Amino acid sequence: MSMVGNLRKVARLARRARRVDLSHPARSPLGSTVVNCVVYRGGVRQEGPASVHEAVRLAAGHRDGFVWLGLHEPAAEQFADVAELFGLHPLAVEDAVHAHQRPKVEQYGDVLFSVFKTVTYVEHAELTATSEVVDTGEIMVFTGPRFVVTVRHGSHGSLGPLREELESQPRLLAEGPSAVLHAVADHVVDEFLTVAAAVQDDIDAVETQVFSPADRTADPGRIYQLKREVLEFKRAAVPLAQPLARLASDPSSPVTPEIRAYFRDVADHLARVTEQITASDALLDSVLQAHLAQVTVAQNEDMRKITAWAAIIAVPTMVCGVYGMNFEHMPELHWRYGYAYAIGLIVVACFFIHRGFKRNGWL
């Protein structure tokens, strides 16, 4: 099987795999911060070392060896030893510890520092004005000649399933840290596709409710909240285009030429996601404007009805007001049929006014 076929197979298997969080104590004998520390030689996992320092020593003794160290939300003090051991740049270390970074790729000597924003869909029984739709996290990846250090922030985005699937493909891992970096990028973008499809279902439901003639209970707060969540998703996905383009085309980066070409496939998937997010954002704008227009039309219809009834009521008010002034000398004041005449005049006038409003659609 070709290398690109292997890479795509790993991505498919990772999507179907059961989400296993290796930061769980039962799966992580090295502690809650250090998710895992593994040495690979020729793409094959070696027996677990006793410490990170020993892992580095074992990897250095083999031409095709490298260390993959996984961390979860390390503190500055905990990450200081790792940074010194691998010679990581202080600026990249600061970004990795404090998180909340934009997707980017920076090169410090022969070390590549990549930042990916992870996104997961938050299941909810009903979308409300306060519902959380997407939850974001971060994965930082340091790739050097003989090591990969992944730093994960957030409660989701575990790389455990991806690591296990990569280990079942030793030919891929034999390509070294570049293969791991590609697998992480592909994993993140594939999750974008999954989340985009789920968010689109929510948008379709809101759109159906807004334009349904039988349902006028659409809440603009729900639409606005969904738009905010889409914007958060957009901030995670759209800025990743430039870093992926650099990984795919920059010959000066430490990414091997064999792996560099496959970043173009990831960039193509990301382009599909960004197009869908942009379209969803624009659609939500249209839905929100349509809903506000419907509200305005409904208010205008109510005001027309109120105005029409006020005009009808004005007729008996005027007639009764005239005959309620109690002047001694008034026309028809002592006429025998004056009362019936006044009532009849009110009824006929109100009838024709009501008929006119009815024809014009005000009532």
Low-confidence stretches: 1-31
Main sheet makeup: 7 strands, mixed
Question: Whole-number average pLDDT?
Answer: 81
Tell me which CATH architecture of the largest domain applies here. 2-Layer Sandwich
Q: Briefly note the CATH topology name of the largest domain.
A: Beta Polymerase, domain 2
Account of the protein in words:
The chain has helices at 3-16, 52-60, 76-86, 90-98, 160-167, 170-173, 177-210, 220-237, 241-249, 257-260, 263-323, 338-359, and strands at residues 34-41, 44-45, 65-72, 104-108, 111-121, 134-143, 147-153. A 7-stranded mixed sheet has the order 2-1-3-7-6-5-4, sandwiched between helices. Mean pLDDT is 81; it is low at 1-31. Strand 6 and strand 7 form a beta hairpin. Helix 1 packs across helix 7 (177-210) and helix 11 (263-323) runs antiparallel to helix 12 (338-359). The protein has 363 residues and is of the alpha+beta class. The radius of gyration is 34 Å and the shape is rod-shaped. The protein is built from 12 helices and 7 strands. It has 2 domains: 3-192 and 210-294, CorA soluble domain-like (Beta Polymerase, domain 2, 2-Layer Sandwich), CATH 3.30.460; 300-359, Up-down Bundle (Methane Monooxygenase Hydroxylase, Chain G, domain 1).
